[in-house]
Amino acid sequence: QPVIGVLALQGDVREHLLTLAECDVLARPVRRPEELAEVDGIVLPGGESTTMSRLLEVFELLEPLRLRLAEGLPAYGSCAGMIMLASKVLDGRADQHPLGAVDMTVRRNAFGRQVDSFEHDIDFAGIGSLHAVFIRAPWVESAGAGVEVLATVPESASAGEAAGRIVAVRQANVLATAFHPELTGDGRVHRLFTEMVRSA
Ligand code: GLN
């Protein structure tokens, strides 16, 4: 069974571990470089990307994680995790360190105050209709040619500017969603990721 780590510095670690536990993998929290070295895939949870980014430095995981991602370690980031995987962050903070695992620019807290949290059914490529929970979520402002768009905000959810915005992507072995499948009890996105790890 593949070993999948969940970065456990901050955020909804437990929810990811519980969802992964249903996917026939060994799911483990990762807080130390030695633990990172043992995983076949890594999940970056939802939470607060500036805090998580700072803790990555404090726990001396930033460079080891960058290195493993550069070597092709499969990764999945939800919400704050998506922000961390980006190559560029808009409305980020100076001490935010994008990992650059996906060639995309992400806007933090993109949906704004009016609708800073909302739920809507979206159409996810290869999965179908999925109930998506957005909590002070980012969106993908732009993505490079090598990035596959897996989901966008449907017109029916249209909060003005939000309609059509990219909210799920994949580039090679890296998956990212602006929403939180770990909060809905629907394991299909995690299953997609664990299949990516298995075939990597
Ligand atoms: N707004 C948060 C950030 O910028 C992300 C929110 C989330 O993960 N639910 O990191």
Automatic annotation (TrEMBL):
Catalytic activity: aldehydo-D-ribose 5-phosphate + D-glyceraldehyde 3-phosphate + L-glutamine = pyridoxal 5'-phosphate + L-glutamate + phosphate + 3 H2O + H(+); L-glutamine + H2O = L-glutamate + NH4(+)
Subunit structure: In the presence of PdxS, forms a dodecamer of heterodimers. Only shows activity in the heterodimer.
List of residues binding L-glutamine: G47, E48, S49, R108, I135, R136
Keyword terms, alphabetized: Glutamine amidotransferase, Hydrolase, Lyase, Pyridoxal phosphate
Gene: pdxT
Family, as annotated: Belongs to the glutaminase PdxT/SNO family.
Organism, scientific name: Allokutzneria multivorans
Pathway stated in the Swiss-Prot or TrEMBL entry: Cofactor biosynthesis; pyridoxal 5'-phosphate biosynthesis
Membrane spanning residue stretches: none
Active site: C79 (nucleophile), H180 (charge relay system), E182 (charge relay system)
Pfam families per record: SNO
Function noted in UniProt: Catalyzes the hydrolysis of glutamine to glutamate and ammonia as part of the biosynthesis of pyridoxal 5'-phosphate. The resulting ammonia molecule is channeled to the active site of PdxS.
Protein known as: Pyridoxal 5'-phosphate synthase subunit PdxT
Documented EC number(s): 4.3.3.6, 3.5.1.2
InterPro entries reported for this sequence: Class_I_gatase-like (IPR029062), PdxT/SNO (IPR002161), PdxT/SNO_CS (IPR021196)
